[in-house]
Amino acid sequence: MSEKLGLSFDLLHDYGNKVASQYGLTFTLPNELRIVYSGFGIDLPKVNGDDSWTLPMPARIIIDQHGIIRSVDADPDYTVRTDPQKTLESLKLITGI
User: Fold this and answer.
1) 28 with 57: CB under 8 angstroms?
2) Please, are residues 36 and 85 in contact by the beta-carbon 8 Å criterion?
3) I want to staple 7 with a disulfide (CB 3.0 to 4.6 A). Which of 2, 11, 93, 96 is the partner?
């Protein structure tokens, strides 16, 4: 995807949601939703690269150069997303810019 879009930074593809799980940001789809997803042709095990049937929660995490988490916005409701302006404001506060 980075090459296709000509991006100058790396993108994380979190196979099996391993990174999201380390941050406590995953949930497992119940059987009823697995059937619905499959009915729409969504092969979640194939996308995830495992049989976990997990999805990540939308989240924005700012981690500094020393690996310290400076800011987190996460919501289990997938329709709630962090406003990009809030991310920029958090970065300005953290960096002092």
Assistant:
1) no
2) no
3) 2
Higher pLDDT: 94 or 26? It is 26
Are 91 and 69 in a shared domain?
Answer: yes
Tally of structural domains, the chain:
2
Token duo for residue 24: 């406590």
Going 68 to 72 to 76 to 81, the CA torsion angle's sign is negative
CB atoms within 10 A of CB 17: 21
3-state secondary structure (DSSP) of residue 5: helix
Q: Residues 32-75: pLDDT tens digits? A: 999 999 999 999 999 888 988 999 998 888 888 888 888 889 98
Q: Count CA within 13 A, CB hemisphere, residue 55.
A: 14
Q: In terms of residue numbers, what domain contains 97? A: 58-97
